[in-house]
């Protein structure tokens, strides 16, 4: 290599490194900004890619990030393999949350929507893409298959925002979970059919071979899953290698399936994930955590790459009346008809109206449709192809248009529409107590007695047993994980208490829920047993508000609980006010007060009890027999407060 060639190679490698760094920074930066603003991450990631791609090109004459040139220049063909592998991991993630028992939980309406409504939406969407958007038949079939999906990454924030519960909320949640891999499989099937027709091969013979190859792909994915389960259960792999082995095996499974038949790898990795999800494998939560981290990185990168790869010309051709007509038909014809027909007789009228409107598209829709757009484009230019897929270049812009439109429209309308139709949660939201111990269980019982529904969360099944036996609502799992986004009903609570023995973990819980609920709605126990030491712990910006008072730590509460202290409910009256209570119970800690309007206020530093007639105090102090008759009378008066 001469000096000039070396300089070119060095420049190319530097540009590639810069591009990778920029993609990572923009993707993760958009995710962080979405977390801070409580905005849809998918929209911010797409905007980041558009800013450094087509928008930068319009302003400065060339894009800051040009994935096509960086990854495919100089004889390299890296862009499609990178996107393909990323989509494979994303679909594995979708399979990993799809348990067979989930279909039983979802109910008849979701099952009918998946098995009847899905194919119906695919059929109607094909006609919409062909006649409204103007795509060719091949592109329309593949694109409509992907548009069936409604991912949980966009559904769950909408459910939390709208406080939508009941059957309608469960329908949207489980439809998103189940449909994630289903839409991708529709696209695979549609592409294989089109590929057979384009190459002029015998449809019957090739179709039989494709079905056989798909079955082999499923079998390969199941074999990988069963093999991994056996290896983990037999202790053949150390704990620290389990997550990396899973990641490497996803790529290997995908590559082996691709050698059997093109695009069967997506089917194989989905089957692999589903096998692990239904294996009841111990330690699967830890694997999910690693998978979530990898998936966030890949999703962020893919979105930036795909949007940056759009050109102003392609975007200009997509912003037409045909695109607007396609969006209108998909939103007001295809979705309502597919829901109403498939769920007829299983949903109430108001539920059917809401579910026929709400269907935001997310990560899988864009990633998979962009992958197949590239495959169709390449297929149309093969020498043995009978067809030219003129609509392939329009698929990615149409997918982004669908995502932007549905996320914005449905995000702004789901709350008002749910309230108008009487489907928004009418019950006052409860309290999430993270960390189960004897003190928190007794506290939860007291909250339930005054009409506040508590949810006790812990990642240890044994610690939750007394709470379950007491008839309290529980959540088993890690509340900080993506899995909790799906399984934990965020509309059921509007305040969070970190009550575990681990103060940094309580701070993490508070930081996790603060952007969603507001920092004034997240609390945790004091870190130390003295006020002086407590000031030297984590700063206020990194932890929740202190519950009870400074110096009232987990250790001191548990110690007093074992000494016989208990929770009490005391209703204040015009003859027995807060000053009477403090004189009668000087040792008791006032934990919270329930106002006459039903508002529950947790107390702590600079949040003193307000008191007033009709207020119910929740306190933690010595046993009742050590109290005065006046206190006993006030506590007896608080018993009817369960109807508050």
Verbal overview:
The protein folds into two domains: 21-421, Na+/H+ antiporter like fold, CATH 1.20.1530; 430-622, NAD(P)-binding Rossmann-like Domain (Rossmann fold, 3-Layer(aba) Sandwich), CATH 3.40.50.720. It has 644 residues and is an alpha/beta fold. Helices cover 64% and strands 7% of the residues. The chain has helices spanning 3-37, 41-60, 67-72, 79-96, 100-106, 108-132, 137-146, 152-162, 166-199, 203-233, 239-260, 265-277, 284-308, 312-318, 321-342, 349-357, 363-380, 392-420, 438-449, 461-469, 482-487, 503-517, 531-534, 554-562, 578-584, 629-638; strands spanning 430-434, 454-458, 473-476, 493-498, 522-524, 545-546, 566-571, 589-594, 600-602, 616-621. The chain has a six-stranded parallel beta sheet with strand order 3-2-1-4-5-6.
Reconstruct the topology from this structure.
Layout: H1 3-37, H2 41-60, H3 67-72, H4 79-96, H5 100-106, H6 108-132, H7 137-146, H8 152-162, H9 166-199, H10 203-233, H11 239-260, H12 265-277, H13 284-308, H14 312-318, H15 321-342, H16 349-357, H17 363-380, H18 392-420, E1 430-434, H19 438-449, E2 454-458, H20 461-469, E3 473-476, H21 482-487, E4 493-498, H22 503-517, E5 522-524, H23 531-534, E6 545-546, H24 554-562, E7 566-571, H25 578-584, E8 589-594, E9 600-602, E10 616-621, H26 629-638
Parallel strand pairs: 1-2, 1-4, 2-3, 4-5, 5-6
Antiparallel strand pairs: 7-10, 8-9, 8-10
Helix pairs in contact: 1-2, 1-13, 2-13, 4-11, 4-12, 4-13, 4-17, 5-9, 6-7, 6-9, 6-15, 7-9, 7-17, 8-9, 8-18, 9-10, 9-16, 9-17, 10-11, 10-12, 11-12, 11-13, 13-17, 14-18, 15-16, 17-18
């Amino acid at each position: 290599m001469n000096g000039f060639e070396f300089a070119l190679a060095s420049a190319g490698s530097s540009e590639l490194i810069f591009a990778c760094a920029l993609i990572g920074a923009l993707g993760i930066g958009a995710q962080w900004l979405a977390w801070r603003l409580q905005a849809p991450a998918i929209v911010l990631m797409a905007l980041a890619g558009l800013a450094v791609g087509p928008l930068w090109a319009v302003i400065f004459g060339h894009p800051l990030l040009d994935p096509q040139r960086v990854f495919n220049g100089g004889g390299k063909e890296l862009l499609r393999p990178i996107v393909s592998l990323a989509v494979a991991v994303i679909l594995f993630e979708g399979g990993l949350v799809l348990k067979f028992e989930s279909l039983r939980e979802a109910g008849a309406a979701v099952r009918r929507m998946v098995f009847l409504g899905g194919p119906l939406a695919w059929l109607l969407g094909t006609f919409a893409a062909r006649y409204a958007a103007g795509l060719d038949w091949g592109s329309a079939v593949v694109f409509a298959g992907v548009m069936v999906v409604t991912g949980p990454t966009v559904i769950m924030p909408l459910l939390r925002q709208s406080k939508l519960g009941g059957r309608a909320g469960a329908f949207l949640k489980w439809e998103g979970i189940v449909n994630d891999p289903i839409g991708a499989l529709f696209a695979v099937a549609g592409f294989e059919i089109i590929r057979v027709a384009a190459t002029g091969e015998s449809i019957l013979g090739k179709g039989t071979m494709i079905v056989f190859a798909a079955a082999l792909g499923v079998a390969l994915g199941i074999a990988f899953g069963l093999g991994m389960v056996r290896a983990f259960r037999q202790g053949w792999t150390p704990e620290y290698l389990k997550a990396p082995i899973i990641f490497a095996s996803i790529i290997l499974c995908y590559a082996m399936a691709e050698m059997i038949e093109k695009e069967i790898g997506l089917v194989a990795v989905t089957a692999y994930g589903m096998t692990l999800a239904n294996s009841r494998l111990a330690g699967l939560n830890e694997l999910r955590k690693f998978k979530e981290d990898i998936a966030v990185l890949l999703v962020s990168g893919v979105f930036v790459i795909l949007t940056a790869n759009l050109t102003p010309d392609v975007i200009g051709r997509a912003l037409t009346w045909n695109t607007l007509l396609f969006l209108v038909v998909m939103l007001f014809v295809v979705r309502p008809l597919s829901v109403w027909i498939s769920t007829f007789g299983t949903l109430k009228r108001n539920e059917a109206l809401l579910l026929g409107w709400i269907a935001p598209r997310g990560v899988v829709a864009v990633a998979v449709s962009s992958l197949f757009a590239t495959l169709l484009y390449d297929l149309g230019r093969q020498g043995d192809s009978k067809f030219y897929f003129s609509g392939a270049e329009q698929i990615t812009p149409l997918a982004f248009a669908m995502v932007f439109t549905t996320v914005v429209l449905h995000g702004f309308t789901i709350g008002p529409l749910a309230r108008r139709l009487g489907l928004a949660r009418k019950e006052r939201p409860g309290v999430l107590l993270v960390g189960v111990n004897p003190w928190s269980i007794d506290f939860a019982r007291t909250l339930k007695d005054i009409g506040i529904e508590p949810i006790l969360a812990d990642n240890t099944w044994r610690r939750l047993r007394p709470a379950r036996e007491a008839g309290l609502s529980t959540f088993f799992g890690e509340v900080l994980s993506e899995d909790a986004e799906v399984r934990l009903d965020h509309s059921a609570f509007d305040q969070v208490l970190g009550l575990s023995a681990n103060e940094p973990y309580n701070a993490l819980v508070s930081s996790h829920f603060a952007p969603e609920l507001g920092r004034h709605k997240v609390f945790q126990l004091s870190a130390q047993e003295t006020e002086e030491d407590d000031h030297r712990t984590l700063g206020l910006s990194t932890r929740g508000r202190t519950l009870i008072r400074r110096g009232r730590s987990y250790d001191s509460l548990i110690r007093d609980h074992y000494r016989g202290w208990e929770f009490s409910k005391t209703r204040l009256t015009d003859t027995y006010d807060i000053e009477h209570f403090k004189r009668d119970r000087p040792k008791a800690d006032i934990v919270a007060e329930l106002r006459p309007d039903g508002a529950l206020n947790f107390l702590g530093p600079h949040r003193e009890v307000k008191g007033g007639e009709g207020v119910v105090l929740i306190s933690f102090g010595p046993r009742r027999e050590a109290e005065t008759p006046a206190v006993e009378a006030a506590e007896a008066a608080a018993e009817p407060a369960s109807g508050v």
